[in-house]
Amino acid sequence: MIIDKIENLELYTAVVPEFAAIAKYLRETDLAALEEGSYEVCPGVKCNVSEYEPYAAGDKWEVHKKYADLHIVAVGGEKIDCACTLDGEGLGYYSEEDDFMFIDTCGEGITTTNLKPGTFVYCAPHDGHRPGLKWNTDKVKKAVFKIPYNK
Fold first, then answer.
1. Measured distance CA(25)–CA(19) in Å, rounded
2. Is the pLDDT of residue 86 over 60?
3. Could you give the 3-state DSSP secondary structure of residue 42?
4. pLDDT tens for residues 26-77?
5. Whose CB among 3, 15, 64, 142 lies 3.0–4.6 Å from 125's, allowing a Cys bridge?
């Protein structure tokens, strides 16, 4: 998991080379003006834009196998919980097509951050996360960049 300001995204290209193309995309694109949907950023990397009302509370953690998530709020703000899944319990069904699985708990060591415009949260597939939690607004517009994970 990496939490930082968008202006520092390219500092992490040694860890995630795709951050260079994503940073360029962010300089050239107004996320707040994008319609809901999926956009290709570069080969293999998609930007999924959605608008929603944040949840009052989250009871399930999500994990992935093939893709890492880069969460960037364009409008509003949300709380996101992140944790290592090594202590995870209640492993559920994994959807190969959607690269998605819910787990019940992530043990201890939970990091909570308030995600607002100008910041990002990067979750590797093994980082359990609960995004979309209510923080300070009733509406959120967010982009989640799906980055192939071949580590």
1. 10
2. no
3. strand
4. 999 999 999 999 999 999 999 999 999 998 877 788 889 899 999 999 999 9
5. 64
3-state helix, strand, coil in the chain (%, to 5): 15, 50, 35
- List the structure tokens of 30: 């107004």
- Name the DSSP class of 98: T
Q: Does this model's pTM top 0.85?
A: yes
Give the C-alpha separation, 24 to 15, whole Å.
Answer: 17
Identity at 17, one-letter amino acid code: P
Q: Reply yes or no on whether the pLDDT at 146 is more than 70.
A: yes
Per DSSP, what are the bridge partners of residue 130?
Answer: 81
DSSP 117-147: TTEEEEE-TTEEEEEEEESS-S-EEEEEEEE
Torsion 117-126-48-56 (CA) sign? negative
